[in-house]
Specification:
alpha+beta, two-stranded antiparallel sheet, elongated, 4-stranded antiparallel beta sheet, 13 helices
Length: about 375
């Protein structure tokens, strides 16, 4: 038992340090808050676990009621940590009704744990202050396993969120507490769950920090470094691709008229629009201040044109509620490993096509401005 307490204390200290680091370094506000909530819940569970160990050691009848209360809190909160883990993995676009639906097992488990004070369904503390498992002991563990399974499913399903290597790392992080839960169910003498959850949270923080090397902090899309790495992979493989270039036309004017905060919002909304239209088709990169690139593997010209048309329609809807409109110039070119000079020459062709479209847009908006002045 004592080694378990030592491990829990070490995990608590590590999580406290991680919380302070996450507050400073995890850029996304929602992820930051949910991550810290998961850490705090885990710290509470570790403290409760230490308390149950210490109260069970002495054969003291006066500790029966506190022991039961601590166990109620511990078993009630058990699925809360993976639930919080699941929530901060979900994005802002996740529907509220789904989150509420997923909270039902959590609430049901809490109710059953409270009732166990008298019924002993989940756990039982006898007159000698000794703990035994109830008939429904597996309920909190099963609900926790459900939340972990949902995370693994979504990590595999959401192919455009992470690279294959990143998805493997994320799934491995989730598997640690999942396997620990299974082992603790099988072997009663083991106390592994919450120290393993603490380890997962520590590794997830490292995982988030590592993603900063490949993702643009402001927009959330992949950054220039990831783009260059992707281009190099195409240059050294036999895969064909379509390269799309995008340039945000009125960023300087937006900064001058509405301020740099409005300019940052313009960049963010442009990135989101591009990523949304190319979701499942290609990977979006921010390669400059107002420049974006999408690389798609093996798509026909018809799909390329259809996706750009979808982007135009989306921007019309987005711009309806904006004073400073999002105007994107774009161009694309196809890379064929057998026919093209190189992936980099294809990138230059897409860039030239984008500038041709940019000039066309300037002429169009210039004529509109002159017409308005004439009227």
């Amino acid at each position: 038992m004592v080694p378990s307490i030592s491990m829990d204390v070490f995990a608590i200290v590590s999580l406290c340090f991680t919380i302070s680091m996450a507050k400073r370094h995890v850029a996304d506000k929602k992820t930051n808050i949910n991550y810290r909530v998961a850490c705090v819940i885990t710290i509470i569970l570790l403290v409760l676990e230490i308390a149950t160990i210490l109260m069970t050691l002495p054969n003291n009848n006066k500790l029966i009621v506190p022991n039961r209360i601590v166990n109620i809190l511990g078993f009630s909160l058990s699925p809360a940590a993976p639930f919080a883990f699941l929530l901060f993995y979900y994005k802002r676009e996740e529907k509220i009704w789904r989150k509420r639906f997923l909270s039902i097992p959590l609430c049901f488990n809490a109710l059953m744990c409270v009732l166990s004070y008298k019924t002993g369904w989940i756990f039982f503390i006898d007159s000698q202050n000794q703990y035994t498992r109830g008939n429904l002991f597996l309920l909190p563990a099963i609900i926790s396993l459900l939340y972990y399974a949902l995370m693994i499913r979504d990590a595999i399903k959401k192919n455009d969120e992470y690279e294959i290597e990143d998805r493997k790392a994320f799934v491995s992080i989730i598997l640690i507490p999942l396997l620990a839960t299974i082992l603790q169910i099988i072997f009663r003498e083991l106390i592994l769950i919450w120290s393993s959850v603490a380890l997962s949270l520590l590794l997830y923080y490292v995982f988030l920090r590592e993603l900063l090397f490949t993702h643009d902090i402001q927009t959330g899309v992949k950054n220039r470094s990831a783009f260059e790495n992707e281009m190099e992979q195409y240059a050294n493989s036999n895969k064909n691709a379509a390269i799309f270039m995008f340039d945000l036309n009125n960023l300087k004017e937006t900064n001058d008229v509405y301020g740099h905060k409005a300019g940052d919002e313009l960049i963010l909304d442009a990135a989101r629009s591009i990523k949304e239209c190319f979701m499942g088709i290609g990977k979006t990169y921010r390669i400059g201040g107002d420049e974006f690139c999408v690389i798609c593997e093996e798509i026909p010209k018809q799909l390329a044109e259809c996706t750009l048309s979808h982007l135009d329609d989306l921007l019309i809807k987005v711009n309806q509620n904006r004073q400073n409109k999002i105007v994107l110039a774009y161009g694309y070119a196809f890379y064929n490993q057998k026919e093209s000079e190189s992936i980099y020459s294809t990138f230059s062709q897409a860039d030239e096509a984008m500038y041709a479209h940019k000039a066309k847009l300037k002429g169009l908006y210039g004529r509109r401005s002159n017409d308005q002045e004439t009227v």
